[in-house]
Amino acid sequence: MGTKEDVRSRLNIADVIGEYVQLTPAGKGRLKGLCPFHKEKSPSFQVDTEQGYFYCFGCKAGGDVFSFVQRTENLSFGDALRKLAEKAGVQVEAKYGEKSSRDLYDVNAFALAYFREHLQGPALEYLKRRGLSDETIAAFELGYAPDGWDGLLKLARTRSVAERQLLEAGLLIENPENGRVYDRFRGRVMFPIRDHLGRLVGFGGRVLDDSKPKYLNTPETEAFKKGELLYGLDKARTRLKEDAELVVVEGYMDVITMHQHGFTGAVASLGTALTAEHATLLERLGVTKIRLMFDSDDAGRKATLTGLDQVIGTRFEVSAHRISGGKDAADALLEQGTQAIEKALEDGLDEVTVRYQNSTAKFNINTPEGKRAILMELLPRMMINESLDFTNAPATNLRRIVAHGLDISEDRLREWIDSKAKRKALSDTHMIAMSNSRQEEDRELALLRQLLVDPSLLAKLDGSMPWRNEAVRKVMLAAQGARSPEEILDVFRGQPEEQLLIRLMFEGRDSGTISKAHAQQYEQKVTAYAAAAVDDIQVTLSIDSMRSEVDFLKKQVVSAAPAEQLGLLKQIQELQRAIEAEKRGRRGHA
User: Which of 63, 178, 500, 589 has its CA 20 to 30 A from that of 197?
Assistant: First the structure.
């Protein structure tokens, strides 16, 4: 039996790491590439072939070939050693305590051979009827568990496979009352389930009739943990280097049929929602987009999205897609061909939009309490994940939607979300400070007050400003061409706006003094203040316009080709500098 050093001596670390990272020469005995453990745009990851180690100057990850495989594949040392030993052609004896998972794989392989041998008659006809080719049936190793209580058990006894091993693998069931053991899977089409490394960890079985349960899976074992597994991921991961997107469908047949028709990024969860454990695995494999494709209606699709673990939403761009007619993927492909799937993938519901819609349906958007509840519910989804690309498109998109929908300042919202406070409480003061409407309407009333003092200031406005205060909007519209406050007031004689105008005119003309000199000073100050108020409104519009352009460019960066991204990023930086300059200018004139 070989040892760790035997395996190491037969492998070139650059060859092993080269299967995961594109390496280029960086000097004698050294190679460099983009680090697989954190996102970077310039290579800081190096491999020393003479010393047999790797090191990243960015995230400080380092070690030998075994630690690299452990970290990359999320393996224990024993599993990493066995994986590399197999590559090197060395047999390594498992240590005590490392045998359990290996034994389960071997017992499952024994059962798979039994199921494959019995795939004939009605079971094979069923698969053919579902449109599967011989090549697909072979590629996915489909089989059949015959009727009868102990077919697998009898075979095991002739092959020296212990009942205990079959029980531990979940292939047998023991009756607690009489101690009798019998086959778990009987009269079912069998779908072998492999983990992302291709290890046979368990099975799923489907009945050929209408009996219940329709599907039956291997129970939780040392190797089979359904909250960490995705059916078909061992095959789908081969395309992730070309396209970092997965399509999650509902069942085994959906996955298999999708792969047969060229949609090789299809996987399925094993009866569970996507979990934080799934997120950790998929992120490590380089997945950036997840498309959920189910045969449910719109309500079910929304429920699926909002029920996602928050970790999934913060780490991936997630959308939900429904096939026309409510069909599942397998039936749609059989009856309509690939166009049905292509059309479904073209249209989908964005996860963050659905979260916002569902939240606003639960709480009153027109009250401070309702807005507070919405913000607190959506806070985890609006948090920026620092380990991702700087754009963090889903979280940024939700912030924009929330700010617009709740009529609050996006800047103030961002400050609150990004604050380092452990408890992000929202007091009434916080809510008032975030409100756009109150601040904007107060500013609009202040501007109107000054215009009543000097109507000539109207000429500085371009007539396209979107007034929030309805009374201000009406007055501004009626005031066009007016030469004096009295002319403006005449338009609103006897109308509700008249009292507002009288009050504002009184406030604007009340100098608090009686001397002529002081009155002249007051008028000069009023004129200067009015001009500054107009400029302030115009600067605010300019800043808002530039922020909208920044948001638009950030969305383009996400989908742009690498060659275009640099130019877009430069535009974003220039706009952000211009925004800061406008802010400083406004503060300097305040």
Answer: 63
Nearest C-alpha neighbor of 405 from the set 439, 361, 442: 361
Other Cβ atoms within 10 Å of 58 Cβ, number: 15
List the one residue out of 301, 420, 438 whose CA is nearest residue 371: 438
List CB contacts of 248: < 8 A, sequence separation 6 or more: 230, 266, 267, 268, 269, 274, 290, 291, 292, 293
Give the whole-angstrom CA distance, residue 317 versus residue 245: 9
Cis peptide before 213 (omega within 30 of 0): yes
Instruction: Decide if 26 contacts 7 (C-beta within 8 A).
Output: no
Instruction: Please give the helix or strand (H or E) that residue 254 lies within, else none.
Output: helix 252-260
Mind listing the pLDDT tens digit of every residue in the chain (590 residues)? Answer: 457 888 888 999 999 999 889 999 998 889 999 998 888 888 999 999 988 999 999 888 899 999 999 888 777 787 788 889 888 888 776 554 445 556 888 999 999 999 999 999 999 999 999 999 999 999 999 999 999 999 999 999 999 888 999 999 999 999 888 889 999 999 999 999 999 988 899 999 999 988 889 999 999 998 899 989 999 999 998 888 778 899 999 899 999 999 999 999 999 999 878 888 898 888 888 888 999 987 766 666 666 776 677 678 777 888 888 888 778 899 999 999 999 999 999 888 888 888 898 899 889 988 888 998 999 989 888 887 655 544 467 888 899 999 989 988 888 888 888 876 555 677 665 676 677 655 556 667 777 777 777 777 766 665 556 666 777 778 777 777 777 777 777 788 777 777 777 777 766 554 443 344 444 544 554 455 445 444 544 555 466 667 767 777 777 777 777 667 777 777 777 777 777 777 666 555 54
- Cα 165 to its chain centre, rounded Å, is 40
Q: Which long-range contacts (CB under 8 A, 24 or more apart) does 363-371 make?
A: 365/405, 365/406, 368/428, 368/431, 371/406, 371/408, 371/431
Which tokens is 422 given? 């452990």
Per the CB < 8 A criterion, the answer to whether 458 and 451 are in contact is yes
Number of H helices, E strands in the chain: 27, 17
- Contact between residue 405 and residue 365 where contact means Cβ atoms under 8 Å apart: yes
Residue 259 DSSP class = H
Q: Do the beta carbons of residue 189 and residue 144 sit within 8 Å?
A: yes
In degrees and rounded to multiples of 5, residue 186 shows phi and psi of -145, 130
* Bridge pairing between strands 200-207 and 188-194: antiparallel
Distance CA(149)–CA(184), nearest Å, equals 8
- Enter the pTM of the model: 0.61
Three-state secondary structure call for residue 275: coil
Residue 549 — φ and ψ, nearest 5°? -65, -40
**343 in Cβ contact with 324 (< 8 Å):** yes
Eight-class DSSP state of 238: G
